[in-house]
Design brief:
Length: 153
């Protein structure tokens, strides 16, 4: 007959040691899953902050467009422009010197805005054609301001 390596009293010890090892493995798995869920919450929160900062930058662009529609020579350069619960900056508006109201009655302009919300940053650049409101619009043009490009930098 085969030789038995364990005494009768050792069987309980093996069962106890096995249950301790299994408990430790299960605890490590539960801890890892809980930690991953905890950090995914912050990823979602950062995504929300980015969405808010982009909305703030878009609000500054809309403000600059409104000002340009009322005054085609609006210079921009507004810092800490308050929008609801946040703020953004409008950089000085760049007007292309090769275009002006005296040359074809339109200007080419670039609006740059920056917004920061809780560490999430957004920068937008919008390129425009602005037609002089004192003159009739060219054929095919229906508004004084035409957005030619809108992009996040």
């Amino acid at each position: 007959m085969g030789k038995n390596f364990f005494n009768e009293g050792d069987k309980g010890y093996i069962a106890l040691l096995s249950s301790i090892i299994i408990s430790l493995v299960m605890t490590c798995l539960a801890f890892t899953a809980a930690r991953a869920g905890f950090y995914s919450r912050f990823d979602s929160l950062n995504g929300e902050y980015k969405r808010v900062s982009k909305g703030l930058a878009e609000s500054c662009v809309n403000h600059a467009l409104l000002e340009l529609s009322q005054n085609p020579n609006y210079p921009g350069a507004e810092t800490d422009f308050v929008v609801g619960f946040g703020h953004c900056d409008i950089a000085p508006i760049f007007f292309d010197p090769s275009f002006g109201f005296d040359a074809g009655h339109k200007k080419i302009a670039v609006i740059n805005t920056n917004a920061d919300y809780k560490g999430s940053y957004s920068k937008l650049q919008v390129d425009l054609e602005i037609y002089d409101p004192q003159y009739a619009l060219p054929v095919g043009v229906e508004q004084n301001i035409i957005i030619t490009s809108w992009r996040e930098k």
